Amino acid sequence: MVVPAAGLGTRFLPATKTVPKELLPVVDTPGIELIAREAALAGASRLAVVTAPRKQGIMAYFDQDELLESTLAARGKTTQLEKVQAVNNLVEAVAVNQDRPLGLGHAIGCAESALDDDEDCFAVLLPDDLVLPFGVLNEMIDVRQRFGGTVLCGFEVPEEEVSNYGVFDLEEPAEGDDPRVRRVRGMVEKPDVADAPSTVVAAGRYLLDRTIFDALRRTEPGKGGEIQVTDAIELLIKEGHPVHVFIHEGGRHDLGNPGGFIRACVDFALNDDSYGPSLRQWLTGRLSADAVSHAVVSGE
Ligand code: G1P
């Protein structure tokens, strides 16, 4: 499986000047570890992490830290030791270098050399995207087993948000078919609202047929002057390659910007035994204080 993690993290500056956004903690666990957990759950043993030279901390996170572990063990800090060790045996992470930020499609293209010769299909997980609960990749693998080709993950957004995403043009499901699995007629990267073919957009999970590498080599820079994987997929569709979408109906958090990241932290913290109860209590008080001050301001 491939995790593109070479981006500059511009939406999260200034923190991302020195800390890769993939290492920012959702409660206490970096986003990259959550992605590694999801990949492991879907059966991955190896993760090709596409990074940039200035983001070496991401790979260091997958290295075992013997001094830290032995110190925690000697001090009897078992809970902390277990947390540190959790990542050790999840997956083997291998680094793939992307020396210039030329887009998501370019980053995926860089991973070709990291695949085994007999891997005719591979998954891409965007670490910005938490798709919850884990398990959507397994659904996508099932879809590929039925239809072959490429399988993407879609979710519904309000119309005014479509311009932030790759947007699908979908066939209607035949009667009796699972309405969550649809054939893709076309795909367009971040269209204007008026031009969007639907309100079903791409989440950051892709099950790509190996032919994508050939399509990426033939893909010109698109939106934002970058090589877009959306455009390479559109090219494959035009050439008759079967592409399906699995429509995810669960939750999703965008960890790539502070607003989405805060929601993810609150969501995870509310479910956490240590932090949940007191956070819930504090939030409730904070929100009712807000309601009171709003009433004062609006004269209600
Ligand atoms: C990327 C893809 C876009 C997809 C999105 C999902 O965009 O290009 O098609 O919908 O991820 O998060 P980005 O968010 O990297 O701009």
From TrEMBL:
<keyword id="KW-0808">Transferase</keyword>
<comment type="similarity">
    <text>Belongs to the UDPGP type 2 family.</text>
</comment>
<dbReference type="InterPro" id="IPR005771">
    <property type="entry name" value="GalU_uridylyltTrfase_bac/arc"/>
</dbReference>
<keyword id="KW-0548">Nucleotidyltransferase</keyword>
<dbReference type="InterPro" id="IPR029044">
    <property type="entry name" value="Nucleotide-diphossugar_trans"/>
</dbReference>
<feature type="domain" description="Nucleotidyl transferase">
    <location>
        <begin position="5"/>
        <end position="265"/>
    </location>
</feature>
<dbReference type="Pfam" id="PF00483">
    <property type="entry name" value="NTP_transferase"/>
</dbReference>
<dbReference type="InterPro" id="IPR005835">
    <property type="entry name" value="NTP_transferase_dom"/>
</dbReference>
<dbReference type="GO" id="GO:0006011">
    <property type="term" value="P:UDP-alpha-D-glucose metabolic process"/>
</dbReference>
<protein>
    <recommendedName>
        <fullName>UTP--glucose-1-phosphate uridylyltransferase</fullName>
        <ecNumber>2.7.7.9</ecNumber>
    </recommendedName>
</protein>
<dbReference type="GO" id="GO:0003983">
    <property type="term" value="F:UTP:glucose-1-phosphate uridylyltransferase activity"/>
</dbReference>
